[in-house]
Amino acid sequence: MNEHFTGSFTQQEPIPDTAIDAAVAVLKSGRLHRYNTGPDEAGEVALLEQEFAAEMDAKYCLAVASGGYAMTTALRAIGVKPGDRVLTNAFTLAPVPGAIAAVGAVPVFVGVTEDLVIDLDDLAAKADQADVLLLSHMRGHICDMDRLLALCGATDIKIIEDCAHTMGAKWRGRWSGRDGIIGCYSTQTYKHLNSGEGGFLVTDDDAVMARAVVLSGSYMLYGRHLAAPGAEAFEAVKYDTPNISGRMDHLRAAILRPQLQRLASQCAAWNTRYREVEKGLTECPGLRLIARPEAETYVGSSIQFLLLDWDAAGVQDVLARCAARGVELKWFGGAEPMGFTSRYDSWRYAPAEPLPESDRILAGLIDMRLPLTFSLDDCALIARIIRSEVGAVYQKQPVQ
């Protein structure tokens, strides 16, 4: 009899009791707005910013309404204007080109490699087309940051990092998000901290952070921030930086602060699940796992594999067979966007040159969430189901 998985791929862990208690205290106070604080009271948002900045070894942090808002604010804060071109990954999620479009700029898509990172050769070829790179560490895969920094340094390209999937990850011991001018993070439900929606941006640049704080809607109350530069930085920007409100509120900050304290242990728990699935899929015929470089300290909150050069019917057969046994896989090769699995040619508001090698990779790219509600036995079972169904369909694949 075929094994069947009965768990949910969208069920997250409960919010910790300490976070619930903190949220209830905020609700009882009635003061949810980040600047609605009592005398000599810092407030949950300012304290969270201070704590996140310390966690990421950053001078400054701003808590905002979403990861997408963090990226849009980051682009504005470094001076991206309507009509500017911004380099970004072809393999990413819709909020990344959406952030570029939101400031009136134009995405220039850079290809993806079989290791699911930005193609640095393609980036080098397109380096003369823009002076900003919005780099997406998509699905938690970090490229060779040493080579990328050398390339961008040589061509005066400013880097913003999208770390929605790499909060807690590192490259050669450096936190993801700390190599660019700004690092952007998400606290949406399926990310590494869960406030439903929310995000952060971090930077060491006084002027950039001052502009970001004013952009977020500080109403000249920037003195209430604990993880921001002094008043002199704001004097230079406060009259010509628009208010584009996207603040985080005390309720979400209260939920996040206790979660931040256990980020390291949560990342370790994701990685044990990732490795269990990876072990079960190792040397599966027809299936290619993604190699993780030694320099990368990853967070395995999802796992990807390639059915490279399979025909579309075969990939769809695997998806259907796994779904029938309770395993929910996502495919980035579908002709139509489904859920979050849109691709660069789905975003018709953004011009896109053909990327044949990236199309080949996306055509075989399978993605799966690994929520912490899964046990290690669940992960082993899921791997057995995928291995069985991939093997059954692979036998019918045409010879390449």
Please sum up the structure shown.
This protein has 13 helices and 14 strands. With 400 residues, the chain is an alpha/beta fold.
What topology does this entry show?
Elements lengths: L16 H13 L14 H12 L4 E5 L2 H11 L7 E5 L5 H8 L3 E5 L9 H7 L5 E5 L8 H10 L3 E5 L7 E2 L2 E2 L6 E5 L12 E5 L2 H12 L13 H5 L14 H12 L1 H19 L6 E2 L6 E2 L4 E5 L5 H13 L5 E2 L24 H7 L2 E5 L6 H19 L6
Parallel strand pairs: 2-3, 2-4, 4-5, 5-8
Antiparallel strand pairs: 1-9, 6-7, 6-11, 8-9, 10-12, 12-14, 13-14
Give the assembly state of these chains.
single chain
Looking at CATH, the homologous superfamily of the largest domain is Type I PLP-dependent aspartate aminotransferase-like (Major domain)
**How many beta strands in the DSSP annotation?**
14
Q: From the alpha-carbon coordinates, what is the Rg to the nearest angstrom?
A: 22 Å
Q: Can you list the strand order of the major beta sheet?
A: 1-9-8-5-4-2-3
Highest-level CATH class of the largest domain: Alpha Beta
Number of domains: 2
- Largest sheet data: 7 strands, mixed
CATH architecture verdict of the largest domain: 3-Layer(aba) Sandwich
